[in-house]
Amino acid sequence: MAGPRKPIDLLVRTGRKHFTKQEIKQRIDQERRVLGPTENIVPPSYLTAAQKREFNEISAQLVELNMFSELDLDNLARYLDSKYQYFEVMKGLKKTKPTSVIETDNGKQIVPNEHHASLVRTKNMLFKECRAAARDLGLDISSQMKLSIPKEVKRELSEFEKRFGDRI
Predict the structure, then answer these.
(1) Where are the alpha helices (DSSP H) in the chain?
(2) How many CB atoms lie within 10 A of CB 100?
(3) What letter does residue 109 receive in the DSSP assignment?
(4) pLDDT (tens digit, 9 = 90+) per residue, 116-137?
(5) Are 71 and 78 contacting, i.e. CB atoms less than 8 angstroms apart?
């Protein structure tokens, strides 16, 4: 089974595959068409003011890296929504204790706090949702490494390349 398709910049710079200039141009045009438009990127109306500010910051960075378009608006909004919900659950989790002490006929007994357990489950669910959205957007380190493009190394031109240039 073939792996995921990699950007042409990555393939050319790593040198693992050799493409003609026409093939490179076709792939670049194809990748631009697939990316989608970037002219009307506005945060969805259901986000809060703080979420809209972060939306604008992240989307500007992703557009600059050619990793974001109007097609990804809802993915970024979903990421921010789950991220902010996660922070709210964490605040509540810090205020509740995992156990409570109750008085019984035999004395004091420590029992688990069901509200705390419920918050932990919610926190884990929101974390997974946030991480999945971040992965889809290329915000986590593993997806960034898949897209990372090595720096081009300047090399000395061969005698053949000096004589004929790019007419090969």
Answers:
(1) 8-14, 21-35, 49-64, 73-95, 114-137, 141-147, 159-164
(2) 14
(3) E
(4) 999 999 999 999 999 999 988 8
(5) no
Distances 115 to 78, 85, 90, 97, 100 between C-alpha atoms, Å: 26, 17, 13, 9, 11
Question: Residue 35 pairs with which residues in a beta bridge?
Answer: none
pLDDT at 83: 95
Per-residue pLDDT at 145: 65
Non-local (6+) Cβ contacts of 126 within 8 A are 82, 85, 86, 89
Long-range contact set of residues 83-92: C-beta below 8 Å, sequence gap at least 24: 83/130, 84/48, 84/50, 84/51, 85/126, 86/123, 86/126, 86/127, 86/130, 89/119, 89/122, 89/123, 89/126, 90/123, 92/119
Query: How many CA atoms are closer than 13 Å to the CA of 122, on its beta-carbon side?
Result: 18
Which amino acid makes up residue 68?
F
Best CA proximity match to 129, nearest among 168, 164, 86: 86
Q: Which of 15-24, 37-46, 75-84, 107-116 has the highest mean pLDDT?
A: 75-84
